[in-house]
UniProtKB/TrEMBL annotation:
GO MF annotation: an example: symporter activity
Subcellular location: Cell membrane
Positions of transmembrane segments: 39-69, 99-120, 126-148, 168-190, 196-217, 250-270, 282-303, 315-333, 339-363, 430-450
Lineage: Bacteria, Bacillati, Bacillota, Bacilli, Bacillales
Major place of residence: membrane
Membrane topology label: Multi-pass membrane protein
Biological process terms in GO annotation: carbohydrate transport; sodium ion transport
The protein's name in its UniProt record: Sugar transporter
Any one GO CC term of the record: plasma membrane
Keywords: Membrane, Sugar transport, Transmembrane, Transmembrane helix, Transport
PANTHER family reported in the protein's UniProt record: MAJOR FACILITATOR SUPERFAMILY (MFS) PROFILE DOMAIN-CONTAINING PROTEIN, MAJOR FACILITATOR SUPERFAMILY DOMAIN-CONTAINING PROTEIN
Keyword Membrane set for record: yes
Any matching Pfam family: MFS_2
């Protein structure tokens, strides 16, 4: 009998569909998917605010409102699109891959349009243009990212292989982040100022790279886990929502991810102002990006053996605690040089990198737990609910970033910011993420229930419930 009242449990059929074994080709394909995603996602999260404030002349508070509205809309779009995909019949190429192919082109075009500056227009025009292009891009991002993220759970059902997929996905995002963090400031800024033409050029370059990666992801990735047709027909949104509310691992990881996104997005937005204004050197952002990405790369080979020995929950929680300590310490050290600050922050990056590397394996675990509760394989819906939480976190971070900069007195028209504004920027970049990381540690350590032992048992219990076709 199903643990969710009113649900008639159906069997899940796992079949090979002549796809061959999971291997390096799948890992590379999945890596390239997030490589493509994050060429624009990281460009937007790191530099769009400064583009809007310094080139479009939009106030930081108005940008905050835009980010808040857009991210909340994106959260709804994520769930709507995930639900839509789960109610469609898979094609011969799979359930998720075709949507990556179809929607990546309009996504990239909309991304380039965000960074097109038309000189001589009114303030109202720039504000309206920002709203339309940014919300359009966010909506189209959902149509690619939801099928991409959901696809991990159907590429393989093996927990260890899924950890590899999560690692390779994060590696793809990190590679994109490395390129944008290092090359971005060199391309986008001229004499420590944001340059409109350079932003457009950068968007075109990253757009071409992005679409190339999406096509490679489509070509190299293979979907292997297939739900029976009766499962799709019996899917009911009200039953799904009831199951989600009973899914404690999902609720915990939703909460942790939402709060983590708030911290990381806030840091990404404020770090530009921290180095540009507080330290007076925007060019050093390239070095910062390079060093912090190096810390991420150190984590990649460590993640799989540490997960095998201690578990995903365990290593992610310890890493978060380390990051919390580092950033809270940085708050009490306001007189560090840019290089000294960067060195400390890199240790913090090393800590939260463990969560970033394994978080997508957390998601596939909670998708499995949903199947365990309901008997239904609703990858797109569950992943979109998780993405919903991340978008809410981004919305809050985007809104808070703009409001926080305004509240501390940041003024884009000033060549040199006031001391109180500089102190406020330092606080936003240190104490706030420190507290955020501490809260995420508490959630992982004490609220998320799927320890290494329980995850292993879940895999066994779920396998016993499935009807396997080889």
């Amino acid at each position: 009998m199903s643990p969710v009242p009113g649900l008639e449990t159906t069997k899940i059929v796992t079949t090979n569909v002549e796809a061959g074994k999971f291997g390096l080709k799948d890992k590379l394909g999945y890596l390239l998917g997030d490589f493509g995603n994050d060429f624009f996602f990281i460009l937007v999260s790191s530099f769009l605010m400064v583009y809007y404030t310094d080139i479009f002349g939009i106030s930081a508070a108005s940008v905050g409102i835009l980010f808040l509205i857009a991210r909340l809309w994106d959260a709804v779009a994520d769930v709507t699109w995930g639900r839509f995909i789960d109610t469609r019949k898979p094609s011969k190429h799979g359930k998720f891959k075709p949507w990556i192919f179809r929607m990546s082109f309009p996504l990239v075009i909309s991304g380039v349009l965000m960074f097109v500056y038309i000189p001589g227009m009114s303030d109202g025009f720039y504000l309206a243009y920002a709203f339309v292009t940014y919300i359009l891009w966010g909506t189209l991002y959902s149509t690619v990212n939801i099928p991409y993220g959901s696809m991990a759970s159907v590429i393989t059902s093996d927990p260890v292989e899924r950890t590899s997929l999560s690692t390779f996905r994060t590696m793809g995002a990190t590679l994109a982040g490395l390129i944008i963090s290092v090359a971005g400031p060199l391309i986008l800024f001229v004499d420590n100022k944001a340059d409109a033409g350079r932003f457009t050029l950068g968007a075109i370059i990253f757009g071409v790279l992005s679409i190339s990666c999406y096509m490679a992801c489509y070509k190299l990735s293979t979907e292997r886990v297939v739900a029976s047709e009766t499962t799709v027909q019996k899917t009911n949104l009200s039953i799904t929502l009831k199951a989600i509310m009973k899914n404690r691992p999902l609720i915990s990881i939703l909460s942790g991810s939402l709060i983590f996104m708030m911290g990381s997005m806030l840091m990404g937005a404020v770090n530009v102002y921290l180095y540009k204004d507080y330290f007076g050197n925007a060019a050093i952002l390239s070095i910062v990006g390079l060093v912090q990405m190096a810390a991420m790369f150190i984590v990649f080979p460590l993640a799989k053996p540490l997960v095998s020995k201690f578990g995903k929950k365990e290593i992610a929680a310890v890493g978060m605690l380390l990051s919390a300590i580092v950033y809270i310490l940085l708050y009490f050290l306001p007189n560090l040089t840019a290089i000294q600050f960067m060195a400390f922050a890199t240790v913090g990056t090393f800590g939260y990198a463990f969560f970033s590397v394994v978080v997508w394996a957390f998601v596939t675990d909670v998708i499995d737990y949903h199947e365990y509760l309901t008997g239904l394989r609703e990858d797109g819906t569950v992943y979109s609910v998780y993405s919903f939480a991340r978008k809410v976190g981004q919305a809050i971070a985007g809104g808070l970033g703009g409001f926080a900069l305004t509240s501390v007195g940041y003024d884009a028209s000033l060549k040199v910011q006031t001391q109180s504004a500089l102190n406020g920027i330092h606080t936003i970049a240190t104490l706030v993420p420190g507290i955020v990381f501490l809260v995420v540690f508490i959630i992982l350590a004490f609220l998320y229930p799927l320890s290494k032992k329980r995850t292993t048992q879940l895999t066994k219990d779920l396998a016993s419930k499935r009807e396997i076709k080889v």
